[in-house]
Amino acid sequence: MNEQLPGRPTSHSRVTLSRIMTAIDVNLYGTVHGGVLMKFVDDVAGASAARHSGGTAVTAAIDEIVFVEPVRVGDLVHAYAQVNWTGSSSMEVGVKVVAERWDVVPNEPVTVATAYLVFVAVDVSGHPRGVPPVLPENVEDERRFREALIRREHRLARRAAIQRARAEEEKAE
Ligand SMILES: CC(C)(COP(=O)(O)OP(=O)(O)OC[C@H]1O[C@@H](n2cnc3c(N)ncnc32)[C@H](O)[C@@H]1OP(=O)(O)O)[C@@H](O)C(=O)NCCC(=O)NCCS
Fold first, then answer.
1. Can you give the pLDDT at residue 1?
2. Where is the HotDog ACOT-type domain (predicted)?
């Protein structure tokens, strides 16, 4: 699907989104709601996928999201995204979220979340369209590419295992 498209370096897809967390972002415990960060992650990843693929891309799956540290009101939060891996029409986008604490000096950025999402590039009818292959530019990019393949293999293997288990259950009924 993407054989004819020239590749794009990883750096082309790098996007950063920043914002200060406010009182409307909090959960009952007074820290920032995980769902607020999930939307933030999806937004930055979507912008990265759109930039790499040169058009609309939709979230197909979230492979993993890990919340490492709580985020608080007043923190300046930055989300960094880049395309780690590309298939024919799908892309894995990696996201790292860091917070600068408003009340800590010096306010060294703290990693608060990491995530891996799968986006699919779509045409105006919503059908998958080809994406340019991503071209890793350094050893870190190459590591991310390899690890994205591991996540993909695990995702496909898990899906196949669940389908086999369901088929067995149906046969037994
Ligand atoms: C994502 C979507 C376009 C895929 O359409 P589809 O017809 O099922 O696509 P196909 O089966 O032909 O697969 C196309 C690609 O998507 C990938 N894909 C499809 N579903 C996937 C999933 N759940 N997880 C990861 N990858 C997925 C396939 O692996 C394939 O990748 P490749 O082209 O790189 O090999 C379609 O399922 C969709 O529109 N989903 C809703 C997306 C959306 O609205 N997201 C916003 C949240 S509301």
1. 60
2. 11-125
Quote the CA–CA distance of 173 and 169 in Å, as a whole number. 6
Q: Is the CB of 10 under 6 A from ligand 1?
A: no
User: Ligand 1 atom closest to Cα of 122?
Assistant: 3
Q: Which atom of ligand 1 is nearest to the CA of 58?
A: 45
User: Closest residue (by CA) to atom 38 of ligand 1?
Assistant: 60
Backbone phi, then psi, for 53, in 5-degree steps? -85, -10
User: What's the 91 CA to ligand 1 centre distance in angstroms?
Assistant: 10
Q: What is the DSSP letter of 12?
A: G
From the first residue on, what is the mean pLDDT of each consecutive set of 10 residues in the chain (173 residues)? Answer: 82 98 94 97 98 98 96 97 98 98 90 98 98 98 98 96 95 84
As given in the structure block, the two tokens for residue 147 are 């690890």
